[in-house]
Model the fold of this input.
Amino acid sequence: MALRLGDIAPNFTATTTEGVIDFHQWLGTSWGVLFSHPADFTPVCTTELGTVARIKADFEKRNVKVIAVSVDPVEQHHKWIGDINETQCVTMNFPVIADEKREVATAYDMIHPNADDKATVRSVFVIGPDKKIKLTLTYPASTGRNFAEILRVIDSLQLTSAHKLATPADWQQGQDCIVVTAVSDADAEKMFPKGVRKVKPYLRYTPQPV
Ligand code: BEZ
Done:
């Protein structure tokens, strides 16, 4: 069955390019991003892994660990990493799971047989420190992902987990946030000392708390 937001991210033990891991132990108290690739030595995947390696510090400063999964063996992954480093001008710096038996792909429903019955689609799971799934995304094999958007969602998730706020369309760090409707006007004034701008009773903005 497909995984849903709020479900516990299935645990697994797997061989990766950085050794064998127990997924939940590897996550520890961090947030996590688990993302799948249709296959090694494919062009779009090569650019994606290069991009994530380049911006890994942006994940780290948000306390997020990143890990990729592909159904090819670990020896292939190591060879492919040589190509990624060469062509994307990076040094790979996060693990890639070798999911030859498709155990991770199956647990996370990453194979969509009507798209391809062997390779995974491009799935993304953002997992919170409580091991619950906070975001799922599914892209077709032909479309490389926008990792700036994944960072943007993580910023929103981390903000809204700490405050009774939501974030509007296209929100970016530092922009005004939305006070959730469950908070009364009186409580909102106390909770958000930077001020509350009421456009409609259900549409109230406040500057992003620090
Ligand atoms: C790619 O990563 O380039 C790719 C993989 C599978 C199908 C299409 C493109």
User: Anything to note?
Assistant: The chain is about 30% helix and 25% strand. The first strand starts at residue 13 and ends at 16. The mean pLDDT is 97. The radius of gyration is 19 Å.
